[in-house]
Design brief:
Radius of gyration: 14 Å
Number of helices: 5
Largest sheet: 3 strands, antiparallel
Order of helices and strands: EHHEHHHE
Strand order of the largest sheet: 2-1-3
Strand content: 15-25%
Shape: globular
Oligomer: single chain
Low-confidence stretches: none
Structural class: alpha+beta
Mean pLDDT: 89
Helix content: 25-40%
Number of strands: 3
Length: about 140
Amino acid sequence: MSDYRLWLAAIPQPLPEADARVYWNLKDPTPALTEALAGAAYLYVGSWQEMHVSERPQSGRSPAVRLFDRLFLRGTIDGYQAPTLDPQLRDELNALYQPRPDDLPSESVAAHELERFLAGHMAWCLLPEETPPAGL
């Protein structure tokens, strides 16, 4: 069974829509996208397996999969973008990260680490990454 890992990449500048489209459609990265991700701040959030995924959006049975689902939704609905971290998105991500009674065991960082990372990167853009650049 495959493990999926979630790192949050916080980039200081918005991505042009064309680069965001490439990112969300899993195409070969553009130079702007490569540069943005190389200069990003990263936080490892956790992992999940197929058994953690739900057919209902944002009801995954792992905090990390719920965060990924939310960022994917925000990044692909109403145009392609790297979602900007504002107070509303911060609160949504913190709420989605809270454990739920039907969660299955999975690797996750402590909630206060996520809260600290988000608080330190307000107005930056967030992208979910499976692996950070070499050296982290």
